[in-house]
Records
---
Amino acid sequence: MTDITSKPPTEAVLAPDVATPEVVPAGVPPKQGKPASLWSDAWKELRRKPTFVISAVIIIVMVVMAAVPTLFTSVDPRECSLLNALQPPSAEHWFGFDLQGCDYYSRTIHGARNSVAIGLVVTFFASLIAVTLGSLAGYKGGWIDSSLARLADIFFAIPLILAGIVLLNALGSKSVWTVSAVLIVFGWPTMLRLMRSSVLSVRELDYVDAARALGASDWRIITRHILPNGITPVVVYATITVGVVISAEATLSFLNVGLQLPAISWGLMISVAQNRILEAPHLLFFPGLFLSITVFSFILMGDALRDALDPKLR
Amino acid sequence: MTSYIIRRLGQFVLVFFAATLMIYAMVFAIPGDPIRALAGDKPMPDSLRQTLTQQFHLDEPFLVQYWYYITGVIQGDLGTSFNNREVTEIISERFPRTLRLAIYAFIIEVIIGVSAGIWAGIRKDKFFDSLVKVSTVAVISVPIFVLGFMAQLIIGVRLGWLPVTAGNPPSLYGYLLPAIVLASVSLAYVARLTRSSLVENLRSDYVRTAKSKGLTQRRVIGVHTFRNSLIPVVTFLAIDLGALMGGAIVTETIFNIPGIGRAVYEAVLAQEGNVVVGIVTVLVIIYAVANLVVDVMYAVLDPRIRYD
C-alpha cells in the first residue's frame, strides 16, 4: 500500500492534458527525498520540449472544441441557406460555405466532437483490453499466452480499413457507437503484443521475485509491480493510436461506411466535397487541415513521450 | 530452427482458417437475407431463389456453408459473383493493376525512404535530421485520402505536372501520382526506421572499434553499420508490400484505378458477398504469407535471435 512508484504513471499521463506547468511545482524535488522516478524525470524533460508543448496545446484546444464547440462559434452548423452555396472564404465567414450553404467554419468546429470522441473512446477501451489481456498473457504464459497470441494474430491478419468496410457494411447501423466498436475490435491486437512483451521483460526482474518471495498474490504482483513498470510502451503507443483512430474514422466516413449524414464529421465533409474540389477547394482544405493537425499532435506527443520515457535514448 | 518453421506454418494455417471464417461470418451470417443482398434492389423469381439457395448451401448450418466455401478456396474456386462471373476471374483481371501500383509505390518508398533515413541518421540532430523527423510525422498525420486529393489538386491540376487519374488503360506515367500518394505513409515509416536503426548502431561497440582502427567514415558507415541497420527495415518492407495492396482501397478510389481495392469496395457497396469474401481472402493470404516469410527470413538471417 505504501508503494509510491505505482502512482506517478497515471498522474503523469493525465498531467499534460489537464495541468499547466504552474500547477505542478517546478523544480521541486520528488517527494520524500526518493530518487526521481522515470515519470517525474520524463515530466521534467517534457515541459521543456517544444514539440510536446505544442502538441499538448493543440490537443487541449481540440478537446475543448469537441466538448464546448459554442466557445468557438455561435453559428448553428445546421442552419443553412442555399443562397450562400459554395461561397468561398470571406472576412465574415472565414471558411466559406458548403454546398447546402451552411457556414463551413461552424461545421468544421462542430466536426471535432465525433473525431475526438471516437479517438479517445476507442483508444481507451482498446488499451484496456490490451493491458488486461497482455499482462495476463505475459505473466501467466503457457496456454493462456499462446491462445491470446493466436487470437491477436487472427484480428491482425485483416487490414483495419478493410475489416471496417466489411463489418460496418454488414452491421447496417452506422453511428458513433458502431464505428467505435468496430475500431475497438480490430484495434487492440497491436497493443496486446506490446504489453505482453513488456510484461515479459519486467516479469523476470529481481523485485518481482522479491515480492513473490514475500508471499504477494498474483494480483498484487501484477497491479503493484508489473503494470506500473511495464505499461510505458503501451502509453506511448496509445497516444499515437488516438491519432491513428481519428484518421481511420475519417477514412471510413469518407468511404461512406462510417458516420452518415446528418452527422457532422471531418471525414464526411471531405467525402461530400470530393466532387467539388475544383470549384470549391476550401471544402477540402479546412476539414482536411483540422483532421491532419489533430492527428499530427497526437503522433507528435507520442513521439515526445517515447523520447522522454526511453532511458536508452537519453 | 526447423521446428520453429513448422510451428510457424501451423500458426499460419490456423490464422488463415480463423480469419477467413471471421470474414465469411461478417459477410454472410449477420442478420439479413443473403440472397436478397445478392439481388440488390431487383425482385427475384422463386425458382432462381431456390437454385441460389441450393447453390450456396443456404439451407445448411453456417459452419457447413463455411466448410463448402473453404474447401472450394483450397481448390482454387472462390465462387461466382451475382452475374455469374468467376470471382477468380475478377481477381485475375483486377489484381495486376494493384500489383503494379503497389510495386511502383514500393520502389519509391525504398529509394526515397532509405536514403532520407540514412542521411538523417548520419547527421543526427542537424538540420536535415530535424527536417526528416518533422516532415515524416506530418506525412503520417495526413490521412491518405486528404493527401490524395491535395496531390490531385496541387500537382495534378494547379501545377499540371502529373496526370490526375491513371487513365484507361493505365499508363506508367499515370500511375506515378497515385504511387507517390500510396507510398507516402510507408515512406515516412521507412525513413524513421532507417534513421533510428542507424543511430542506434552507430553507438555500438563494433562501430567504435572500427573508428578507432582508423577506418574512414565511409567504410565505417557503408560496411559496418549500414548492413546491420537494414535488418529491421527489410522486415518492415516485406510486410509492407502486403499492406500496400490492402491499403490500395483508398488510393484506387480517389485516382479511379480499377484495381482490386476498388473492386472490393464496389463489391461491398453492391452487397456482392462472394466477391467481397473472395478478394478479402486473397488479401489476407498475401498479408499472412508476407508475415510468414518475414518471420522465417528473420530466423535465418539473424542468428542472435533464438527460437525455442
---
Amino acid sequence: MILPALFFYLFAGVCVASAFMVIASRNPVHSVLFLILTFVNASGLFMLLGAEFLAMILIVVYVGAVAVLFLFVVMMLDVDFVELRQGFLNYLPVGALVGIVVLIELMLVLGGAVISPGAAKSIVTPIPQDISNTGALGLVLYTRYIYFFQAAGLILLVAMIGAIVLTLHHRPSAKRQSIPAQNARNTANSIEVRKVASGEGLQP
Amino acid sequence: MTETFQFAALAPVLPEISLAVGAMVLLMFGAVMKDRALNFVSVMSILLLLAVGYWVSTMPSDKAAMGGSFISDDFGRFMKVLTLTGSAFAILLARGFLTAPGRVLFEFPILIVLATTGMMIMISAGDLIALYLGLELMSLSLYVVAAIDRENVRSTEAGLKYFVLGALSSGMLLYGASLVYGFTGTVNFAGIAKEATHGGVGLTIGLVFVLAGLCFKVSAVPFHMWTPDVYEGAPTPVTAFFAAAPKVAAMALFVRVALTAFPTIAPQWQQIIVFVSIASMVLGAFAAIGQTNIKRLMGYSSIGHMGFALVGLASGTADGVQGVLVYMAIYMTMTLGTFACILAMRREGGSVETISDLAGLSRTNPALAFFLAMLMFSLAGIPPLAGFFAKLYVFLAAIKAGMFTLSVIGVLASVVGAYYYLRIVKVMYFDEPAQAFAPMRGELKLVLAISGLLVLLFFIYPSPLVNAAAVAAKSLF
C-alpha cells in the first residue's frame, strides 16, 4: 500500500510544483517545458488510478502535439512576455476570483461524493471490472462504433484536403529537388574539362 | 461486451461508402494527373452523385443499421435523392468557374462529393453522434469551398466568417447534445424520445441549444447573420451550392431531430420553431428590400424561404412534414435555376452581380429574362407556378393544426417579399437596356431550362412529387 501512496505524492507534488513554475518562470520556453512536465506527471496520476488509456492519450496528444505546438509558436512568434506580464497585479483580483470560483466548483464536485456515496454506483453504464479500459475501447471502437470511427476519419481527410487547397501555392520559379535527375547525372554529362588561357578567365 | 462485425450489416450504408471511396479515388486521380484531371474529375463526380442518387432511390427502406446510428427510411431516401441531385447540379453550374484561366481546382468537385457524404450521414442520423459527425463533415467541406477562390479577399473573408460562426454553432449544438445525453442517458433518438416524457429544465435547455445549432445550419433567424455575407463573398457557383443541397440536408436533419428525438415534448419545440419561423419570414421579407447585390438578395430570400419551410414543421403533423418536403424540393429547383441566371450575368470584364446590371434584359436576351422572371414569380409564390404550391402545402398544414396567427403572418410576409422579386422583373422588362451579357454557357442553359420548365409545368402533374413526399412524411410518424 505504501508504494502507490509514495508515487501519488511524488507525481502530485511534482505536478503542482511544475504547474506553479509554468506561470512563474520568466522564460516562455521554460514555461512550456514545465507544462510538459505537468502533463507527464498528470499522466502518471491517471496511471495510478488504472486509467492507462487516458494516461497514454495525455502523453500522445498533449505532450506530443499540443505542447510541441505551443513550443513552436513561442519560438516562432516574437512575443514580448515581459510586456505581457505588466499589469499582473492589476489583474490579480480578477484572476483570484476566477481561481476561487473554480476551487468552489471542484469542492462541490468532490463534496457530492461525500454527501451521497451511492452516486458513483448509479451510473448508467457500469464499469466492467474484468477488462482493461484500452481493451474495452478496442472491442467496440472497430465494431459497434466503426461507423463513427470512419466518419471521423473522413472529417480529418476533408481537413487535410482543405489545408492543402487553401495554402499550397505552386510556384513555377521555385527550385525543387528532382531525384531521377540527380540519379541520372554522371561524370560524362556533369563535368567538362576546358583549357583556360592564362590571365583571361572562363566565359560561361 | 464483445460485438462482432459483419460485412452484411454494411448493406444499407453502401451508397455512403461508395461516395466516400469514389471521392478518394478521384482525389488520387487528381493528385497524380494535376491540372489535366479537372474535366474528368468533375464529370465523374457528377455521374457518381447521380448514380448514387438512383441507387438510393431503389434501396429497401425501414432498416436501422450500425446499431441504430443509421436509419434508412422513406424520408431519408426522399431527402437524399434531393441532396444528391442538388450537389450534382451545383458541380455542373461550377464548370465555367473551374475552367477559368489560371485556376486549377480539381478538389472542388471532390469536396462537394465529401460534403454530400456528410449530408447523407446527417439525413440518416439515428443518434446524436452521427448527427454531429455528419454535420461536421458537411460544414468543414463547406468552409473550405467558401474560401476556395483564395486569391480573392472576399472569398477568403466569407470562408473565415463562415468557419468562425460555424464553429460557434457547432459548440452550441454539442453543448445541447451533451445536456440531452446527460438528462436522458442515451444518444439514440428513439431512446431520447422514450426518456424525454419526463421533461425537465435540463432537457429543455439541451433542446434549445440543439435547435440553435440546427437553426444556424438552415440559416434561420436569429442565427442568420452569416448568410448574406457568405452568399455575397463566396464565388457564385459556391453560393449556388450553399443555397441548394446543404439547406435541404440541414432541414431534413431538423425535421428528423424534432420528430424522432423529441416527439414527446413537441409543445416545447413547437414554440421555438414558431418564433424562428415568424422571425425568418419577416426578416427575409424586409431586409431584402434594400439590397442591390443579387447574391445578397438571394441570401435574404433563402432566410425567408427557410422560415416558410419551418411553418410546416411547426405544425408537427404528417401533413406539415409533407409540406416541408415539397417546399424543399421546389425551393431547390427554383434556387438552382436562379443561380444559373446569376452565373450567366457575365460581360467581357467578368461577372457582374448588381440588380441594375439586369436592366432591360428582356430586350437583350428575351429567353433569359423570361425564365428569370418566371423563377422570380415562383419565388414570390404567385400561382400557378411551383413556388405557390410549395407555400400552399405548408400553410394548409399549419391551418389544419390550428396555427392561424403563424399562417396569417406568413402570408403577409410573402406579400412583402413579393415586392423585391417583382422589382427584379420590373428592372428587366421596363428599364433602359444595359450592355448585353456574354453568351450563356451550355450547361447553364441546360440547368435553367430544366428548372424553369419544372417550375412552370409543376401544376399540370404535381402528383409524383406530392405523393413521394406524403410517403416519406408518413415514415416519420
